[in-house]
Design brief:
Layout lengths: L9 E9 L6 H10 L6 E12 L10 E10 L6 H9 L2 E3 L19 E5 L3 H12 L3 E5 L5 H14 L22 E2 L8 H10 L12 E2 L2 H17 L3 E3 L4 E7 L6 E7 L2 E4 L2 E4 L6 H5 L1
Parallel strand pairs: 5-6, 5-13, 6-9
Antiparallel strand pairs: 1-3, 1-4, 2-3, 7-8, 10-11, 11-12
The structure holds flavin-adenine dinucleotide.
Length: 287
């Protein structure tokens, strides 16, 4: 069965299975609950899974509660399906969830965009901008993750902090030494494409649907170099150990435009700047 989205799809909630049940049973469960004959379901995708540990009377069984998305033959309207729609058990799925939105502002056409910061914000901004066909250069004051790891080991031994590459600064930003808990689940059009990118880079496949998804710091360290390689394939150029110290601006407000970055490695021309400096960057905001 095609597991990608078809143009119109439906979200089905509240599908329960014991935790040890084969997830492959879900498609059959959906078909049974909605009265779908064989072949009507054209696509199926598990979008969310959460654990229900509540007791029901004498029943202590742990269950997973699932949400799935399905696409049906155009025009299909079985009686049970129609009732499920009315009751809210089934609802129309948000459109275009699996696509990376590529539209950019007209002023950015052909622009060289500088991204300040190599944390989750900067990396995925670079990813989107490069997918949209823009020329992207990313500036990160800290080191790539392999070197950053060695620098942290040195810090733990010597207790001499490195102000440029540390637990907060460097590839992956503060996110690298976070847990990689992905609990927010913002239902944004970008949520699924970003999670899919993380999985393509080696994150566990369950993050696509687990309500309490968790990548793990150990895995993040392997995910980041793969993400970097995929960004480089898209044309993103990385400037490691390069601190942005100021902007060269042309014109006067309100029409002023950034023309270049002043960095610890010299001046670099750019037409636009994406600021992803994180919350530990007071010196950057003050400069
Ligand atoms: C201990 C800890 C645990 C956490 N656990 C989780 C978790 O489990 N799940 C979760 O979702 N969130 C967690 N967080 C929060 C998460 O890490 C942040 O929300 C996230 O990193 C923010 O991403 P960002 O890209 O906006 O900023 P940052 O990750 O802070 O990245 C900013 C980057 O910009 C760079 N930078 C700053 N100024 C300059 C400059 N002038 N020039 C060049 N580069 C610059 C920095 O070096 C840094 O790498 C945790 C945070 C911490 C500290």
């Amino acid at each position: 069965m095609d597991t990608r989205f078809l143009p119109k799809s439906w979200r089905v909630r509240g599908l329960e299975l014991p935790v040890d049940a084969d997830p492959a049973l879900l498609a059959d469960l959906v078909a049974r609950e909605l009265g779908l004959e064989a072949g009507v379901m054209r696509a199926f995708r598990l979008v969310r899974r959460s654990l229900d540990a509540r007791r029901r009377g004498s029943d202590h069984q742990l269950r997973f509660v699932h949400q799935v998305e399905i696409a049906l033959d155009r025009g299909f309207r079985g009686g049970r399906f129609a009732r499920a729609l009315r009751s809210g058990y089934v609802a129309e799925a948000p459109a275009s969830e699996s696509a990376i939105p590529l539209a950019t502002h007209a002023s950015l056409r052909g622009a060289r965009v500088a991204v300040l910061g190599g944390g989750p914000g900067g990396l995925f901004a670079a990813w989107m901008l490069a997918h949209a066909g823009l020329e992207v250069e990313l500036f990160e004051r800290g080191s790539p993750v392999e070197r950053r790891g060695r620098e942290l080991v040195a810090f733990h031994r010597s207790r001499v902090p490195n102000p440029e590459s540390n637990l907060l600064y460097g590839e992956g930003g503060a996110g690298t030494y976070s847990d990689g808990k992905l609990y927010t689940r913002v239902e944004d059009a970008l949520e699924l494409p970003i999670l899919e990118e993380l999985v393509a880079c080696g994150a566990p496949g369950e993050i696509l649907f687990d309500a309490r998804a968790h990548v793990g710091t150990d895995k993040l360290h392997r995910v980041l170099p793969r993400l970097r390689a995929r960004l480089e394939e898209l044309g993103v150029r990385f400037h490691w150990n390069t601190r942005v110290e100021g902007l060269v601006v042309a014109g006067a407000a309100p029409g002023a435009r950034v023309r270049a970055l002043r960095t610890s490695a010299g001046e670099t021309p750019c037409d636009a700047l994406f600021l992803a400096s994180g919350h530990s960057a007071r010196d950057t905001w003050n400069s």
